[in-house]
From TrEMBL:
<keyword id="KW-0808">Transferase</keyword>
<dbReference type="InterPro" id="IPR001173">
    <property type="entry name" value="Glyco_trans_2-like"/>
</dbReference>
<dbReference type="InterPro" id="IPR029044">
    <property type="entry name" value="Nucleotide-diphossugar_trans"/>
</dbReference>
<dbReference type="GO" id="GO:0016740">
    <property type="term" value="F:transferase activity"/>
</dbReference>
<protein>
    <submittedName>
        <fullName>Glycosyl transferase</fullName>
    </submittedName>
</protein>
<dbReference type="Pfam" id="PF00535">
    <property type="entry name" value="Glycos_transf_2"/>
</dbReference>
<feature type="domain" description="Glycosyltransferase 2-like">
    <location>
        <begin position="10"/>
        <end position="172"/>
    </location>
</feature>
<dbReference type="InterPro" id="IPR050256">
    <property type="entry name" value="Glycosyltransferase_2"/>
</dbReference>
Length: 237
């Protein structure tokens, strides 16, 4: 049972080539309305100067910075971050500026007050502000969410969202395998198999373009389909 008046939020920030935004997102995370927070950055072997910025400016501002010696992918960076988390609740925060840390209180509320095990921040639920970007990304997200729901029998609106929040002991008990964006359907399937209590909350979204540094692509969509099939029907984890 989490003490709602005395809990710690662990924010895991996987980072790869985010020199332009990493300082801004750290400042926004630090300003979030959460009393006790640890911030763990996992740099996935950035080569654009992000590491220099982490070492020169950002390390004193966060709880921990972990450096991968080779690029492995977002899922691998999250595995590293989860292992080091010590808070009562664990939240994933991308290193870009697409998701707003001001929404942390809304995201953790279902765990604190309503018995949730996991909370997804949905870009397609509610009336929050959204930057209008790629039509086909929206279609792909909805198709992947539909396929995931079909395989897991849970009714999410945004399986691919960055904002996923977990009870720490739960996420640390799951064996994760996907190194890249296949993490999203993998963790969804594995938690659904455990009959975890899922909640969704509507969030704002300020999507960026490929020119601005967006990384997910078509091959990740195909991997997500593979992961939906693999972890929903084969894995016992």
């Amino acid at each position: 049972m989490i003490d709602k008046d005395n809990f710690t939020l662990s924010v895991i920030i996987p980072c790869f080539n985010e020199k332009k935004t990493i300082r801004a997102i750290v400042d926004r995370v630090r300003a979030a309305a959460v009393a006790k927070m640890e911030i763990i950055i996992v740099d996935d072997c950035s080569v654009d100067g992000t590491r220099d910025l982490l070492k020169s400016e950002i390390t004193p501002l966060v709880s921990m910075v972990i450096y991968h010696d080779r690029n492995q992918g977002k899922g691998a960076a999250l595995r590293t971050g989860f292992r080091h988390a010590t808070g009562d609740i664990v939240l994933i925060q991308d290193a870009d500026l697409e998701y707003d840390p001001k929404e942390y209180p809304r995201l953790i509320d279902p765990i604190i007050n309503h018995g949730a095990d996991v909370v997804y921040g949905s870009r397609f639920s509610g009336g929050e502000a959204h930057r209008v970007v790629y039509f086909w990304h929206m279609i792909a997200n909805r198709i992947l969410t539909l396929c995931s729901n079909f395989a897991t029998n849970i009714n999410l609106t945004d399986m691919e969202t960055c904002y996923k929040v977990f009870r720490r002991e739960l996420i640390q008990s799951v064996t994760l395998e996907e190194d890249r964006f296949g993490f999203e359907p993998e963790i969804t399937a594995k938690l659904a198999k455990r009959h975890c209590v899922f909640y969704e909350v509507g969030i704002s979204y300020y999507g960026r373009t490929y020119e601005e540094g967006k990384k997910i692509g078509l091959k990740d969509a195909f991997r997500a389909i593979y992961a939906i099939a693999k972890y929903s029907t084969l894995s016992r984890s």
